[in-house]
DNA sequence: TTTTATTGATTGAACGTTCAATTAATAAAA
DNA sequence: TTTTATTAATTGAACGTTCAATCAATAAAA
């Protein structure tokens, strides 16, 4: 028998190498060779483990989404249930270290573009978008009227994605990401403050 | 001499065809044949007018940016100088009919992704990002303290781009664009209202 | 005729996929 | 222990396809 338990290791190696290649060369210039060389493996191995280049690309996106989900779950577990804290958690997990790395940022953007014309990727992307939105909406709805919560959630989701996009395209992504995180949190704070002011006025 | 004035016509035909192809097939599957066929011309003509496929791609992006700039200038000319009105103009021009079409949306996203790895496109993209930001900041600064204006401009710019992105990726781009425009305007309104409240408090 | 515009067949490079061959780790047999 | 059989893991050359770019040939205007 050959080495056993190597399968998952190899798969992860290839996924990492794929993201490195996409970040460095772009989706456009990422080839089976550019990936396998980075992983220190042969070109054939990609088809062996993922059925082809396309399969590896999808696996890489799934991996990014998993990271994002895990990030959120960890942070959610470590706080009480204040809407304010939960919203901060959501923002933080979207800007967390892993996600913030230039590697991930560039890879995301490539995926977004490709998702528009490949149903497999598009579905994954939409699930993720819907999750961000509904997480936000749930917390806002505990403090606001339904309509207000919907609006605030949509605005926040757009702001998060917008800062991501602009940061990835900027000359200094790191700095832009940090500023983006701060400004998203500030927006949420002020939305909540205004909602509370509104509520106390209605009650009196 | 040959037909005169055909040059610009052909160039525009090819730019339109390129955007159609990118919107339909994605940047990935757009070839000089898929473009030239849509334009009803031969494949060789692209190199003749644009020096190659890459040249046409850049010209198409430049065209999109020009449209955006023209859109803004027209709207700016038709209003007085209230910061509120100017900000609405900026938002409207970013969501205007031309820009809103699924064609433009898909093309934009493809450009964004590609811009990250091609200096020529990246420069164009950054000029555009900087213009949106500084237009916004200028108007906010007439009502707010400098720091506040910077923050509001950054938030608004991110929200605009974010709604663009999420709309382009959504199942119903049209509806999402419209909602996005409304919510961007609402955000600006509330930012201005809060700034004025702050100002009157400070004065008294 | 001269100049410009346009075509479309051709070329050569690049790419993803396939697969026969090799390697190396384990299990079973001697 | 040593030998043999078995099999997953891995390689990389070969193949067929796709594509951008080229260019000789043609058409049409001046």
UniProtKB/TrEMBL annotation, chains A, B:
Pfam families: TetR_C_6, TetR_N. Pathway: Amine and polyamine biosynthesis; betaine biosynthesis via choline pathway [regulation]. Keywords: DNA-binding, Repressor, Transcription, Transcription regulation. The keyword Phosphoprotein does not apply. Residues 8-68 form the HTH tetR-type domain. One of its GO terms (biological process) is negative regulation of DNA-templated transcription. GO terms for molecular function: DNA-binding transcription factor activity; transcription cis-regulatory region binding. It comes from the Bacteria. Residues 31-50 bind DNA. InterPro entries: BetI_C, DNA-bd_HTH_TetR-type_CS, Homeodomain-like_sf, HTH-type_TetR-like_transc_reg, HTH_TetR, Tet_transcr_reg_TetR-rel_C_sf, Tscrpt_rep_BetI. NCBIfam families: betaine_BetI, PRK00767.1. Repressor involved in the biosynthesis of the osmoprotectant glycine betaine. It represses transcription of the choline transporter BetT and the genes of BetAB involved in the synthesis of glycine betaine. Repressor involved in choline regulation of the bet genes. This is HTH-type transcriptional regulator BetI.
């Amino acid at each position: 028998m050959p080495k056993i338990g190597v399968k998952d290791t190899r798969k992860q190696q290839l996924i990492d190498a794929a993201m490195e290649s996409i970040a460095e060369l772009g989706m456009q210039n990422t080839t089976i060779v550019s990936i396998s060389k980075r992983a220190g493996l042969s070109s054939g191995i990609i088809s062996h483990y993922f059925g082809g280049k396309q399969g590896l690309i999808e696996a890489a996106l799934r991996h990014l989404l998993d990271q994002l989900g895990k990030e959120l779950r960890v942070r959610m577990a470590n706080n009480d249930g204040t809407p304010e804290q939960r919203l901060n958690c959501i923002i933080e997990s979207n800007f967390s270290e892993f996600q913030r790395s230039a590697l991930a940022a560039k890879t995301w953007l490539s995926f977004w573009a490709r998702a528009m014309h490949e149903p497999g990727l598009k579905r994954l992307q939409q699930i993720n978008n819907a999750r961000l939105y509904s997480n936000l909406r749930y917390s806002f709805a505990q403090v606001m009227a339904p309509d207000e919560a919907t609006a605030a959630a949509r605005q926040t989701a757009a702001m998060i994605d917008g800062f991501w996009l602009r940061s990835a395209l900027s000359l200094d992504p790191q700095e832009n990401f940090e500023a983006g995180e701060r400004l998203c949190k500030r927006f949420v704070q002020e939305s909540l403050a205004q909602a509370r002011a509104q509520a106390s006025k209605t009650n009196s």
